[in-house]
Amino acid sequence: MDNECYSVSTSTVATKPKPTKAKPNKAKESVKTVPAGNIKPQGLTARSIFHEPWWLEAATDGKWGVVEVKQGDDVIGEMPYMLERKGLWRISELPPLTRTLGPVIKPQRAGGSDREWCYRMEIADQLVSKLPPCAHFHQLMDTRMSEAEAIAFSLHGYDVSIGYTMEIPPERTESEAWSALRRNTRNWVRRATERLTIREIASPDSFVDFYDSNLAIRKRNNVYGSTIMRRVLGEVRTRNAGVMLGAFDDNGLLVAETALVWDDRAVYYMLSSRRADAHGGAISLLIWEAARIAREKNLIFDLDGISTATILDFLSGFGGRLVTRYEIERMRADYGALRTVLRGEKMASKTGAKRLRKAPLEKT
C-alpha cells in the first residue's frame, strides 16, 4: 500500500526465523503460507482467547497458521487463520467454536496519536498481503478491529460487511443489572430460580453428551463436531479459561447447560442446550448467572452475534448494547460458481423430498 500516511520499518516473518541483523531502511520479509500445529507466536496483549495458540490447536487439530509483522524483535501485528482442503480447493474459514479472529495490532508506543489509524492500516496491509491464496477466505473480526483494518482488507479486494454482537458492560451493580432486564426476561429468570439450581458441570464429556443427545432428539448433528467440542472444552477447563454451567431440577436432573470462556477483556457466551421439556426460563437463568460471573471478574459479557430478529429480541432482554464487528470474505469466481450450483441442487433435492412427503399415497 503506497501512501504518505505513515511509515514504519517492519518485517513479516515465519514462525522460526533465522537470526539476522537488521538493515537500516530495508525490511526483510519471509512468508509462512502453510499452517503448522507447532506455531507458537509470541503474541500481543490485545489478543483474544480465540487467537491463542492452544485454542487454535484444539479447534483445528493443528490445521492453522499465522502471519506476523515484526519491528525489530517485537511482534507488532499478527493474524492467525485455518487452512484446509475441500476437494481441489484450499479454504480458510473460522475454525469450529471460534467466535472471531482477524488482525491483532499493537498500539503505537506514543499512544493517542491522531495518525494511529494510518499505522494500523499499514500493519494490516502487510498482514493481508501475506495471507495464503485460497478459493474462499472468510473471517469474523474481533470487535477491537477498527475501520483502518477493514479498509486494508477492502483495498485488497475483500468484501467487508458489518455484523453485530450484544455486550453487557461490567460496571453495573447486581441491582442495576437486574433493573436493566426487560420485564418478561426478569419474570423468566425469577420463575426459573424457584425451580432450578445452577451448578458447575465438571466433565466436558458430560457436557457434550447432553448437548448431542438434545440434538439427536431433533434429528440434528453437532455442527462443531463432538470430538472437537470435547477437546476445546477440555483445554478451556485445564487452563481455567472458562466454565460449564448446568441448570438442574429438584430431582437433580440436568435440563439445560451453557459453556462460557473468557480472556482478559470479556466473558463469552459460547454454547447452550436444553431439554425440550425444560422450564422455559432455564437458558435465561443460565445467562443471568453468566452475567454475574462477568461482573465478578470485571469483564464485558459478550452475548454472541445477532443473526436473526428472534435472537436479537431474546438477547436484548438482558440489557446489553449493540456493538459492531466486521466480516471479511473473498471468493474466487470459479469456486463461487460451483458453490451456487451445488446449493441449487441441494435446494431442489429438499424441495422434491418435501413434495413427495406431501403427496397422497395411491390406493391399490
Could you describe the 3D structure shown?
- InterPro entries: Acyl_CoA_acyltransferase, BioF2-like_GNAT_dom.
- Residues 1-11 have a biased composition (Polar residues).
- It comes from Caballeronia grimmiae.
- Residues 182-299 form the BioF2-like acetyltransferase domain.
- The chain has 364 residues and is an alpha+beta fold.
- It has 2 domains: 11-15 and 25-157, Aminopeptidase (3-Layer(aba) Sandwich); 167-325, Gcn5-related N-acetyltransferase (GNAT) (Aminopeptidase).
- It has 10 helices and 14 strands.
- The strands form 2 sheets. Strands 4-5-7-14-8-13-12-11-10-9 form a 10-stranded mixed β-sheet, sandwiched between helices.
- Helix 2 (116-129) packs across helix 3 (147-155), helix 5 packs across helix 8 (282-296) and helix 6 (204-217) runs antiparallel to helix 7.
- It is globular and about 60 Å long.
- The protein starts with 10 loop residues before the first strand and ends in a 6-residue tail after the last helix.
